[in-house]
Amino acid sequence: MTGGAPAPAPPVRVGLVGAGPWARATHARMLAAGPETELTAVWARRPGAAAEVAAPYGAAVAGSFAELLDGCEAVDFAVPPAVQAELAVRAAAAGRALLLEKPLGPDPGAARAVADAVARHGVVSQLVLTKRYHPATRDFLRRAAAADVTGARSCYLHGAFLGGEFATGWRLAHGALLDLGPHLLDLLDAAVGPVAAVRGTGDPRRWIELTCEHENGAVSQASLSGSVRLPAARTRVELFGPAGELVYDTAGLDHEECWPVLRREFAAAVRAGRPGALDARRGLRLQELLHRALAG
Question: Gene3D superfamilies attached here (predicted)?
Answer without folding.
Answer: Dihydrodipicolinate Reductase, domain 2, NAD(P)-binding Rossmann-like Domain
